[in-house]
Structures
1.
Amino acid sequence: MAVYNYRELEPVAPGDSSRGVSLRLLDEDAFARAAKVKVRALAVAPGGQTEPHAHVWAHELIVLRGAGALCGDGGEQPLEAGDVVDVPAGSRHQLCNAAAETLEVISLDIRR
C-alpha cells in the first residue's frame, strides 16, 4: 500500500495541440497492472484547453477545483468543482478554461 500526493508527481505535456494543459500520470505503478483503468490528473490553466478528441473507451471526469466548460457532441456544458462527467466511448469532447483559476480534473479511463 502506498500513499502519495498527486500534486508532487512530475507533470508532463499531453503531446498534442492542447494549450496550457499539464498531465500527471497517477497509474504508472499501482493501476498499471490492472490495465483496465487509467487514472490521470489534468490541470488546465486559465485560457487553456485540451485538444478536441474522442476515445474508444468511456471515461469519467471529476472536477476537483476551478470552473470551465466541457465542449463536444452535446454542445457546451459549464463545469465547476464537484461535477462528475460521464463521457461515453466515441464521444468527441474538449475541456476549456475561461476562468481566472486553474481547472483541476481527475480522468478515469475505463478500458475494456
Note: The mean pLDDT is 86.
2.
Amino acid sequence: MTERSQSWFDPDAIDPLVKPLVPLFTQLTGDRLEGLRAALGQSDFEGMRRLAHTVKGSAASYGFAPIATAAAALEKALIAGADAPALSKHLDELSGMQLTLKAAVEADPIAFQGMH
C-alpha cells in the first residue's frame, strides 16, 4: 500500500448523508477491483477501461476525489496502451485506497450506519 493510499482518508470529512453508503461503495469498489484484476489477467483492456471509468464516476459521486483521480489515471493509462506492470501499479494504488475505506468501516461500523 502506498503512503498516498494510507493518508488520503479522513472519516470525519465524509458528508453525513454519504456516510451510510460508504460500506456499499467499499464492497462494490472491491468487487470492481477484482474484476479489473481478472480483466488484466485476460488482457481485456477495454473491459478494464469500462470498469476504471465506473470506479472513477462512483468515487466522484461519493466525494472520494483521490479514488476518482487514481481511477482516472488508470483509465488514461489504459487508453495510452500502458503495459501490464504499469497497470498493476495503478490497481495496487486503488486497492490500497479501497482497503483503507474497508478498514475504517470495519473499525467503526456504527459511524457508518447513518445520521447520529
Note: The domain at 17-103 is CATH 1.20.120.160 (Four Helix Bundle (Hemerythrin (Met), subunit A)).
3.
Amino acid sequence: MKKLLLILFFVLIFTTPLFAGGSKILWDAPSDSEVTGYKIYHKNIYTNQIESHDAGDVLAESISNLNLAFAEYEFWVTAYNEHGESGPSVSIFYKYTPDAPAVPGPPQNLRIE
C-alpha cells in the first residue's frame, strides 16, 4: 500500500456545537495520493464503544450521534480509495457537554382586575 495510505496527517478542528449532541469535525486531505472518501470513527471513552461513519469525499462532517451528556469521545479519521483504507489519523478528544436547558423569563404584564 502506498505510504499515504499507511500514514495520514490530518488537522482536526472542533468548532462550537452545531446542535444538541453534535459538533463539526474538519480535516485536511493528504497530499500524496488519490482519495475516494473518508471514514470518521469515534469511541466513547467510558463504554469503549466504537462507531464509524462514511463521510464520503468531503473534508468536514457534522457529528450528531453523541448522546451521553458529559461523556468523553476519541475521534480519528481514515482515508480510502479503490486500494483500501489508510491507517488512522492522529486522535483528538472531545467532551460532550450539552447546553443547560433555558429557564423561562418571568411572567409579564402582571395585573389585578
Note: Residues 3-95 form a domain with the Immunoglobulin-like fold (CATH 2.60.40.10).
4.
Amino acid sequence: MAAKREPKTPQASEQAPGGPTPPRLRLKLSELRDVTRELARVYRAMKSEQMPLERGKALTYVLSVLARILEGGMLDRRVAEIEKELAKWDATNASRT
C-alpha cells in the first residue's frame, strides 16, 4: 500500500510578503467544454453570492478570452482539414480532364 503524500508546503522564499502563498489551483481548461464548465461554476458562485461580483467579472472576462482563443484554434484545424480534402478532390478531378 502506497504511503499518502503530505501536501508540499511553500518554502520561505516562495511565501508572499504577507504570509504563506495559497496553493495553486490547477484546472483543466484546454478544451472549450472545460472553459464552459468553469464559466458555469463562476456564474453559479456569483448568483449564490459565494463570489464577489468584481472577482466573478474578472474571471468571466479571462475565461471568455480563453474560449475565443480555443474556438479560433478549432476553426484553424477545421479549415486545414477542409483545404486538405479540397486539394485531394482537385488532384482527383484534374486527372480526369
Note: The mean pLDDT is 85.
